[in-house]
User: Fold these one by one.
Assistant:
Number 1:
Amino acid sequence: MQSDPSSAVPPIPEAEIFAEHEGGKLSVALARPLETTRDLSIAYTPGVAQVSRAIAADPAVAASHTWASRLVAVVSDGTAVLGLGDIGAAASLPVMEGKSALFQRFGGLNSIPIVLDTTDVDEIVETLVRIAPSFGAVNLEDVAAPRCFELEARLIEALDMPVMHDDQHGTAVVALAALLGASRVVGKELAGLRVVISGAGAAGIAVAKMLLDAGIEDIVLLDSRGVLLPGRAGVDGVKAELAARSNPRGVSGGTAEALAGADVFIGVSSSTVPEAHLAGMAEDAIVFALSNPDPEVRPEVAARHAAVVATGRSDFPNQINNVLAFPGIFRGALDAGAKRITSAMKLAAAQAIAALVGDELAADRIVPSPLDPRVADAVAAAVARAATEPAATGPAAEPEPEPEPEPDSAPAALAGA
């Protein structure tokens, strides 16, 4: 039942990686020909003025006669990029370009990267509100905790369009989808799993919440100081909320104590996990080492102790990467005209991803390949159906209390992008 990490993609030469990024990964393509004087008169002056007058008279016309309503802005301040941390706006741009490329390739959605040279939440919100007529949805990316929680909540309130911090919610969706498959492989009921999540930043908090929503009760969440427990130093805000909702056995200590007898390890932090700690897990354990670019434990090491092993990287089997989720989630939300991305929509996305594996389910195939052309269509359809619930068009929830900062390097961000 062991997965086989030996089938990984061979290392790619650095020169080839840099060559593929030279000049960037994006360009603007024409949707219609622009070859003749007549074409020019329609696309530009004088014809374009008629469309502009129509939009001025009825702003709703912009949704059907510009690209804005189907354009996703990928926004970052460069403070939590991959596992590299706070590397700044300019250094984050290759990743944001990669994310925009994936929106087009897998979701059929136009997308533009917007990197902002500020970490001030007020400034970011003001900037995006001012340029909001240019796009129809916002994918927040690689924004460090705890500011990411406030930023997402405020943008949901300020913008009349879908907004999602993918490092949080995309990660949670794919983690649940993978766990649905892995639990079937090892023959364990989802609700009965003992789950350990390493990392209480943006991704860890979102994964914990989604697994709780899916019916898993025994979740132990660790931050850099150890297991979250009510009253422990540094456990306040969202961390305190999760400490009260999880860890029913009252586990305390660090990774070794948390993993003793655990069925599942989910890593979404930059920390490493000693092999000896994995050895204490239950029989037929599941290990998701999702930190990018460096997993918490190498898959070949994890495979000595776990029946199912997955990472967030493209060059190992069982890639649990947000590319399985975010293109379809945004497309489904836009298709349905939703103004919010709700919990029901995210749960529907996870179930749709898991269902696609079908009879091919195996220890080294717990989720479909990111290159599977069915994924975005299935996710978009499921999300669009779930978007009919009132919460998808109603007011946003109150902003959540902010947790303490925690290193976070979720698979959200595009391994190898």
Number 2:
Amino acid sequence: MKKTLCALVACVAAGWAHGAALSPVQAQMREIYQELVETNTTNSSGSCTVAAQKMAKRLKQGGFKDSEMQIIVPPGGPTKGNLVARLKGDGSRKPLLLLAHIDVVEANRADWVRDPFKLIEEDGVFYARGASDDKAMAASFVANMLRYKKEKLAPKRDIIMALTCDEEMVPTEFDGAEYLFKHHRKLIDAEIALNEGGSGLLDKNEKPVRHGIQAGEKIYQSFQFEVTNPGGHSSVPRRDNAIYRLSEGLSRLGKFDFPFRLSEVTRAFYERMSTIEQGQVAADMKAILQDPPDMAALERLYAVSPAHNATVRTTCVATKVDAGHADNAQPQRARANVNCRILPQETVAEVEATLKRVVADEQIRITRIGDGQGAPIPPLTPELMKAIEETSNQMWPGVPVIPTMSTGGTDGRFLNAGGIWTYGVSGMFAGPEGSGAHGLNEHIRVKSLYDGQEFLYRLGKRLATE
């Protein structure tokens, strides 16, 4: 497995595979990153509070006063602590928020090639749970706050850093970004926020292809589908079987496509990507921008990657089923979980009504599981785009910045809903194989980590001082 992954990343990273010397800034970053990665912050056995305390200690050693930092632990969640730190500006502009979550998904040591809770540097790549999602950004923000403090930066905006917990848990009552917004908004109130969700793409030769800025995301909403009936002995079957009835409804849903819709962000994505891609893919991207869109072109793009379909449509998919109570009895109940990712232009109520129409069976009871958080799409203002594009071009000349919408979800949904415009941008590039986030052998190139830290340092400084 090691050799396979090495082949994918070409066992290089512009010199880092051969132990390139670190600058003092990079050496400090590596210390912070390693400490954060090796602090277990899983829901089952870890503690975000411990990680937040360690990062607060580093900030204090770097000159931050106790009055400039707070660790906020929500009631009932002693391991779900969040760290908020502030570098004061002159107040002439509303603050900039640097947001990153420090919790990680579970990782089974037996399944991994390496210990997921030890930072392993190998062939120019860092491996660990959280190596990319999201401790790379969290460590970068801590290191950069220390750089700003050491430089005695005098920004126009306050620079606020929030390291939060439980972003990975859905549903949860301890999501740090949501909790801070609802109960301590003054601590994090800002004009704009930088968050996860945007990254860069390298080609198979390690050459940067594009740099993403994520603006907006889909709404996460699950529904329970349930059929009940009297059941009975399996030797005397009823025609009205709860499993069959549920299956037929799910089959109708599986054949259904929600309407095609573009937003300002997704239209810009395809406009710019059509100039990068080649051949049929580029032609198809241009074709779906026509009025009316070419749906055959969309089907071809879908065959290239299901992400294209998810970008332009609400999607609902059955993810779990539970039925029956005995091998020799007809089921009295059959249930399924259907997870929807809803375009930000649509509402949960609209999707629920569509599900009922498509299933077309009143005996299939459809109910919401939790309440999905909808949020408007933040504007891609000329000022923001200029700052990102010019900073990106300093580091990766000629590499286009591409607007994207997340088909998943981040903590940005809570802030965007409350008027704190939140954008995913990191300066961290991954190869065609992805990063392994949420999966096995999560990783990030060593060069990508340090480049990302430098990009975020420059961008944060520019946004705070201009």
Number 3:
Amino acid sequence: MSAILTVVGLGSGNPDRLTLGIVNKLRTASKVYVRTKEHPVMQALEELGVESQSFDTLYESFSSFPKVYEAITQKLLEEVRSGDENTEIVYAVPGHPMVAESAVSKLRLLCAEEGIRLDILGGESFLDEAFVRLGFDPIEGFQLLDASGITRSQLRPELHTLIGQVYDTFTASEAKLCLMELYPPEYEVTVGHALGVEGEERIVKVPLYELDRQEGYGNLSLIYIPADRSESLRNRTFDRLHEIVGILRSPEGCPWDREQTHDTLRKNLIEETYEVLETIDEDDPEHMKEELGDLLLQIMLHSQMEEELGTFTVFDVIEGLSGKLIFRHPHVFGNKDAQDAEAALQNWEGMKAEEKRRKGIKPEAESALSGVPRDLPALMKAYKLQKKASKVGFDWDNIQDVLGKIGEELDELKEAIEAGAPAEEQMLELGDLLFAATNAARFIDADPEEALTRTNRKFVERFQYIERRLQDKGISPKDSSLEEMEALWQEAKQREYKKSAKDN
């Protein structure tokens, strides 16, 4: 039989709040360990004759708190295993043993696995003092977060929020950076030190950006952000967006939004996608932010329609995407390697095939051209079809063969035009020429959609230059001759060349 392990809480720091039971347990224990002697009640315990060993030196020996807590856990288990049923090892922690004590959580699991008796005696938590000293009722909505591991997704401004484990300026800085992803820099927050400890308590209110400029952080420090249900903060949360879209589609919402269906919004989704692409081409982050929001609205509306039917919600969409990203990146979330982008893409394709197998689909039984969306723009679709065909060996040997094919298709188009062939036949010959030109894009490693987009942009810039120059003369293009416009076109080209040479 092993010894008994008892974990006790030393409370928030006021010796008067220690229970008689905990004091007696500390005085009669075979051996007492404390997580840290940097706690206000330690002097009182020493005066009562309680001898103890602390784990303070471990904080200097290890580079992270998890490693410290792991070392504490193993040391205590070694002590317990070496004792007998008449031995009681007491581990004393600040506050309450079940509040922000990682080592205690580990001990509960390991003691249960080994059949070791573990008793836990609660002490006054720092939460008890926080509720009193900071003056809020947790039933209004409350969350407790760890400063060393806080993330943006945990922040919920409508809840009273306490951030514990603010040991030093570094953890305060980490907490500040996370909070500033949601709250404005000048937002007022409260810093509390040694709450309830006479002579040591200090409560200060500071703007968020000054959070890590304060002094006095230590084992008994915390940050408090009062519940804030203002629209300005809620509007930065995904839950609020989901709520707004639901309201728009509700009977009390917007008549236009209520009437929309997947089919009526189909063109909007396409248009918003291209508007985002335009902001990317223009390298305009502010405009991109707005257009990405418009695109996100389309996703939210389509998801809301299905939520109303009970088929899925936007959160199911997010769950599916998260699962897919994790599954298709085994080199990030699993045990595979990918030294470059090409290897990462191969992993992605391999996991896509595995997904199909798990759904009962045999990738090897599918057409080599499967997976290309039916409604892609024609140029983009041609490019993807050719790439898929090339993977199974259906491809030209070199770029010269492709250029020869382009010439062949151009000749056939000329013949159809000169022979006065029906318009349908001429259009098909034009399609063959465009398809052949798309093949050339693959061989020079260029996206044909991007290539044509750049040419379109170049055309717009040159033509608008012609318009401006003609306007300077008091005329418009329709009042000008083709020769004059061609001369201005060449002038625009020369300006581009000079600018390019200067930039390079």
